[in-house]
Every structure is written in C-alpha cells, then in structure tokens.
C-alpha cells in the first residue's frame, strides 16, 4: 500500500507539473487518501464510497417536485441546519420542546457502548471470553419463526453434545433414557427463527429464503492444541432458542445452526496473497462443500464474527480446472479496535 501511495503522489505531481494546478481534480485529490482509508477500514471493496458519491446518494433520496430541484434541496438543507443549530444550543428554548430530544440511530442506539463493545469482543477473543449462549443478547430474533417445535433427531443429539462440551461438570441426557445420578434432561423443544438483528445488522438464514444473501457468516474456532484460533466460513441454516434447567436456574440459550465449508489446500486457499505472504490475503478460497454434521454446527450467536460475500471462482492450472468458493469478508457496521 505504501508503494502504491508513493506512485500516486508521483503521478499527481507530474500532472500538476505538465498541465497545471487546475487539472488536479477532486478525484485525484481524494485518491491520495486511499492508503490511510485502507489501513482504517480494511479492503477497498468494503468501503469504496467517497464523500461526493455519498452526497450524491443523499441528495438523490430527498423528496422534490422534479421541476426546480436545486432551490428545493437548498431550502431543505438550510432548514435542517437551522434546526440542528437550535437543538445543539446550550440555551433552553421552551417553545420547541418537541425538537429537543432526537432518537439516536445506528448500531449503538439501543445499547450502552460498553455492553456492545463487550458483545463484539466475545466473537473476536474466544480464548479469553468463553461463551455458553445464555449471556445477555444485544439483539432480537425476527420472523419467520416457529415456537415450541421439535428439533430433528440429529440436531437434537448435537445439541446435547453442545451442552456436554459447554458445561463439562454437568451430565446431560435425553428424556426417557437411563436415569444417571445428578443428570439434567434436555427437552426436545425450541423456538426457531429465520433472522436475527444485532445492532444495525440483520443476519439471515437458509430458512428465510428472501434473506439468504445475509446468511453467510464467519466464526472463530479454537484448534485442538487449545492455544491457536482459526476462522471458518459457513451458512446459517436457522437460529433457535433452547432452555435447560441447570443449577436451579432455567437458562435460555441463543444459538445458531450453521453448516461450515471445508478448507482448500494451503496453496489454493491463499491464492490471492502477495509475495506468498498470507497476511496480505483478505480474500481466501475454500471448498464449495460443507463438512458433515457435527457438534461444531451449533454455536452461540455471540460467537458470530461477521458476514462475507460468497463468489464462485474457477482456478485453473496446466492439468485441470477446479471451482472454489471465494470468501470476501464484509466489515461490521460498527468498527471497534
């Protein structure tokens, strides 16, 4: 990035030298900020929207008569500016009490910043923040929904395995099975949902076909050595709530059932890296097929790291061509470091 930035500066200086300052357009000026924007916000494809493009979108969305657009938009902007000045003034104006309080908007509007920050850190630092799924959930489930349903027998078995791995000091079993001492019965009854909203983001699932594009997510898993972490892409099949009675408390867990993609070999996975440096590879290639069902298919919603865009990519060599799934991560709508 530094080398590309230096070349851009050199080209713009040559334009100024040969054609004059008047040829340095806003586009050229803004391109000098690409480097620092990439460091701040990640890959270019995740934020490519300069100020003038964003303003064009804002102006185009304002209501107008389609006859005298310019003065109408200017009047709206001037009116909003005056209202903002009055609201932000330290003096109390009794006559406009209705305008004093504006509802906050965005991903942090409903929840305190420290709570949202901790919620996000749970998905990033899974070694330091073990999550069971019954912790405070800063979001809501959305339709389509089905209440008090029976889970498929295979998923029911995986749910029991999930509880066994999560609460290692407890014993879990199915209803009408051997009555082990101090064991907890896991009832096959849950509430299933097709979508989930966390802050300003909505995650879809395969169960909500109209929102399937937002069902592709990333999550971190602890490797078998217990010290390292890898990120895996997958597709959410559905969200569900399940309650279990444990330690004299009824604990409700917010969970997601996700199918995970298989990794490609290392050479193919980092196909887009620069100078064989895997740290420069934002877009990775994965097999376009899922792992078989296992206990890892069930994770707490708190552990969802973010979304990605799946793209079919065909990689060819001298002998054959193979199609992979290119995983393009999307930045969260709130950025915390």
Describe this structure in words.
The protein has two domains: 2-99, no CATH class; 113-329, no CATH class. It has a six-stranded antiparallel barrel. By secondary structure, it is α+β, with helices and mostly antiparallel strands. 28% of the residues lie in helices and 30% in strands. It has helices at 2-19, 26-31, 34-41, 51-61, 69-88, 113-124, 153-166, 266-269, and strands spanning 139-149, 171-173, 183-185, 190-198, 201-203, 216-222, 229-246, 249-263, 284-290, 298-300, 304-316, 321-329.
Count of alpha/pi helices: 8
Query: Please, what is the average pLDDT?
Result: 84
Order of helices and strands: HHHHHHEHEEEEEEEHEEEE
What's the helical proportion of residues? Answer: 25-40%
Strand order of the largest sheet: 6-7-8-9-12-11
The major beta sheet can be summarized as: 6 strands, antiparallel, barrel
Proportion in β-strands? 25-35%
Count of folded domains: 2
Number of strands: 12
Radius of gyration: 26 Å
């Amino acid at each position: 990035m530094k080398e590309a930035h230096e070349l851009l500066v050199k080209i713009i200086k040559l334009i100024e030298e040969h054609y004059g300052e008047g040829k340095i357009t806003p586009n050229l000026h803004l391109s000098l900020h690409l480097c620092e924007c990439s460091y701040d916000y990640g890959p270019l494809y995740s934020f490519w929207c300069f100020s003038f493009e964003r303003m064009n979108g804002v102006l185009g969305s304002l209501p107008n008569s389609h006859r005298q657009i310019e003065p109408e938009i200017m009047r709206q902007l001037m009116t909003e500016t005056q209202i903002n000045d009055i609201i932000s003034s330290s003096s109390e104006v009794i006559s406009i009490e209705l305008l004093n309080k504006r509802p906050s908007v965005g991903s942090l509007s409903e929840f305190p910043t420290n709570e949202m920050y901790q919620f996000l850190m749970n998905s990033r630092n899974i070694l330091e923040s073990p999550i069971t799924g019954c912790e405070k959930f800063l979001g809501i489930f959305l339709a389509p929904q089905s209440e008090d349903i029976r889970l498929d027998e295979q998923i029911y078995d995986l749910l029991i395995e999930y509880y066994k791995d999560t609460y290692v000091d407890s014993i879990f079993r199915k209803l009408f099975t051997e009555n082990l001492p101090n064991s907890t019965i896991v009832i096959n009854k849950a509430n299933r949902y097709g979508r989930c909203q966390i802050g300003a983001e909505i995650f879809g699932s395969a169960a909500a076909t109209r929102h399937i594009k937002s069902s592709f997510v990333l999550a971190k898993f602890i490797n078998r050595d217990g010290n390292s972490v890898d990120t895996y892409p997958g597709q959410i099949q559905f969200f569900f709530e399940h309650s279990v009675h444990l330690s004299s408390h009824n604990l409700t867990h917010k969970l997601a059932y996700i199918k995970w993609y298989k990794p490609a070999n290392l050479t193919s996975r980092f196909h887009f890296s620069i100078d064989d440096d895997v740290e420069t590879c934002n877009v990775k290639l994965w097999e376009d097929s899922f792992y078989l069902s296992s206990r890892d298919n069930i994770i707490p919603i708190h552990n969802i790291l973010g979304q990605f865009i799946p793209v079919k990519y065909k990689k060819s060599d001298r002998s054959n061509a193979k199609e992979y799934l290119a995983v393009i991560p999307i930045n969260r709508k709130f950025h915390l470091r």
